[in-house]
Amino acid sequence: MKNANAVTANAELPPAVPWGRIGAFLVALLxxxxxxxxxxxxxxxxxxxxxxxxxxxxxxxxxxxxxxAIEAVVFCAVIGYLWMxxxxxxxxxxxxxxxxxxxxxxxxxxxxxxxxxxxxxxYTEADAAWHQxxxxxxxxxxxxxxxxxFGIPAFIIIGSAAFVYAHTRLPQFHERVSMPMALLVxxxxxxxxxxxxxxxxHTFFYAEELFAAPVHWGFVLLGWSAFAAGGFLIQIITxxxxxxxxxxxxxxxxx
Length: 255
Description:
Oligomer: single chain
Number of helices: 8
Structural class: mainly alpha
CATH superfamily: Particulate methane monooxygenase subunit c2. Chain: C
Number of domains: 1
Distance between the termini: 21 Å
Helix content: over 70%
Order of helices and strands: HHHHHHHH
Number of strands: 0
Radius of gyration: 22 Å
Shape: elongated
Largest sheet: none
């Protein structure tokens, strides 16, 4: 009887923020991006200067093919899992469970923000510095393989996962679409068509590496989409305040 009462009491406690899982995931993520950046540093200027050299095919094109395949598998696996395990009775969950799921969603947002920082600062600045120093000789460069075919796809995977999680597990977004979140997630996705245009333009008619070049204008979509994060956070915080009030009213009633 005592154990049953303890379980009931624990079930009624407000959920805790999963700091441990978020921290572990961030450590693994930073290790992955750090290892990739170290690989870039070691091999870019030794075997990464000429696309037509055999060494480039071995050390960079094989890496490109491998990471694209892995990213496709991870994307399908994560999105498929979230969809197949979606809550069929999402409108009936308790405030405690909804609060817990919002904490998980905020964990997605934190990971999304860290990837955004790494891709938009460290990897993008490395790409800009690379083109200023070596100019452009081929369609693929070490910095593009790292930024556009590793960093941005990671962006897309975590953003799409957060979008599917929110719209299949939270009453607030059930049977409706969060426009701020949709814009936030669409930014990295819309980078990919512009990447194709950018590579085509540089290869055939625009060799200069000017940051203000017309072939670069489409990349501002990623920056503009980040403004939608404010609206999305307002949606989450507003709901968290409501859930906190419900938790407080419940505690007062039980007391």
